[in-house]
Design a protein that fits this description.
With about 150 residues, the chain is an alpha/beta fold. Helix content is about 35%, strand content about 20%. It contains 4 helices and 5 strands; from the N terminus they run E-E-E-E-H-E-H-H-H. It has a 5-stranded mixed sheet, covered by helices on one side. Strand 1 and strand 2 form a beta hairpin. The longest helix is centred in the middle third of the chain and has 14 residues.
């Protein structure tokens, strides 16, 4: 795939990873503002299948306030999102945009070189101060580096 215009870092919800990759986190309960840029790829973290979108997307079964149903699939999906973020507008989203989305963004930060024990703080500082809502989500991020 050819490189395309990436996210504007000033777009709400956009997180810059240390490598320079930009990823947008979002809550699906909040409609995109009129005229807001759309992703070229979305990873949707929900307990049930999300509505169809006009861009390339993947659903990862991940119930609210919980962890991914299939951790191997989650690792593959998050790795794909991180790889695609180097050349595409990638969006990571759950219902509210904080717990599951924050956890996934912290895992992307780990893939990008942030030490696992610092990844939640990184996402809270650069994305949403309330990201990663539960202790088991924090524990999942700390263990993400080791597989």
């Amino acid at each position: 795939m050819e490189t395309q215009e990436l996210w504007d870092e000033q777009t709400p919800g956009v997180l810059r990873l240390p490598s320079g990759r930009l990823v947008r986190g979002r809550g699906l309960r909040h409609a995109l503002p009129s005229g807001a840029p759309t992703p070229s790829y979305g990873l949707y973290l929900l307990g049930s299948r999300p509505p169809t979108v006009p861009w390339d997307s993947r659903w990862l079964r991940w119930p609210d306030f919980r962890l991914p149903a299939d951790r191997a699939d989650a690792r593959a999906a998050l790795t794909e999102a991180w790889e695609r973020a180097a050349r595409e507008r990638v969006e990571i989203a759950c219902g509210g945009g904080r717990g599951r989305t924050g956890t996934a963004l912290a895992c992307l930060a780990v893939l990008d070189g942030v030490p696992a024990e610092e990844a939640v703080a990184y996402v809270r500082a650069h994305y949403d101060r309330r990201a990663v809502e539960t202790w088991w989500q924090r524990r999942y991020v700390r263990g993400f580096a080791t597989g």
